[in-house]
Hints:
- This is Phosphate ABC transporter ATP-binding protein.
- The protein is α/β, with parallel strands linked by helices.
- The protein has one domain: P-loop containing nucleotide triphosphate hydrolases (Rossmann fold), CATH 3.40.50.300.
- It is 34% helix and 25% strand.
- The protein has 10 helices and 10 strands.
- A 6-stranded mixed sheet has the order 6-7-8-3-9-10, with helices on both faces. A 4-stranded antiparallel sheet has the order 2-1-4-5, with helices on one face.
Amino acid sequence: MVKPTDRVVATENEPLKKLAEVRDLNFYYSGKHALKNINLPVYEKKVTALIGPSGCGKTTLLRCFNRMHDLYPGNRYEGEIWLGDDPPRNLLQMDPIEVRMQIGMVFQKPNPFPKSIYENVAYGLRVRGINNRAILDEVVERSLRNAALWDEVKDRLEEPGTSLSGGQQQRLCIARALATDPALILFDEPTSALDPIATVSIENLIVELKDQVTILIVTHNMQQAIRISQFTAFMYLGEIVEYNETMSIFTKPVEQKTADYVSGRFG
Ligand SMILES: Nc1ncnc2c1ncn2[C@@H]1O[C@H](COP(=O)(O)OP(=O)(O)OP(=O)(O)O)[C@@H](O)[C@H]1O
């Protein structure tokens, strides 16, 4: 088996810096052992894709990064998820509220809050006690621009977020995640509820965003992983079977299971 941390990678002749690293992670839903000995680097300002058949543990792994499993009793983590290097901190030992302030999440179905477009984006700053209108205006505009939504909504910021189209709502959720300047944004199949045109706009956005923020994305769509990610982990039955640069996973996988999956022989 190819262990992610064994592999030294240097794409495009640029040095790679780890933003986060999962080490020997196990996760249990009450009695169910859902993640088994996961090791995974997450490189800064890159897109890392998690792929694999339904039920293999992609979403479970993603949700460990923002401690979402803490919301339900009986769930248990073992191992470490390190974030940053100054000094690195184990996310699994931190206050979950503090973790969620540094790690944003975008879900399958767009989930704007029942608030105006402006207040959806300003929400994370208000939670931190920032209510200065000039600061909020600046961050709201910058975040909406970065989410490629500003031009479409700049004249209707007081309208409800739910009045937007599905693709616009997803970009609003991305703007909301960007507003707090997170180190990492988690995307859980962000285009699965969108039409093909909205999907392309979200994919283009993710490609642009990686220059500013690190991205970890779960996708069922292998073509999407190829289009937008630099690194890919293939998961099966709660384990990472293989991790490598995306092109290697899809063109010269080492493990037979990976080869079978990426060539569509199962899944
Ligand atoms: N709340 C839960 N309680 C118990 N078991 C769960 C829970 N959520 C998920 N599981 C189980 O954990 C395993 C991993 O599920 P997970 O949703 O992470 O897979 P996935 O790869 O994201 O699947 P999909 O692609 O279908 O979304 C599955 O066996 C699933 O049945």
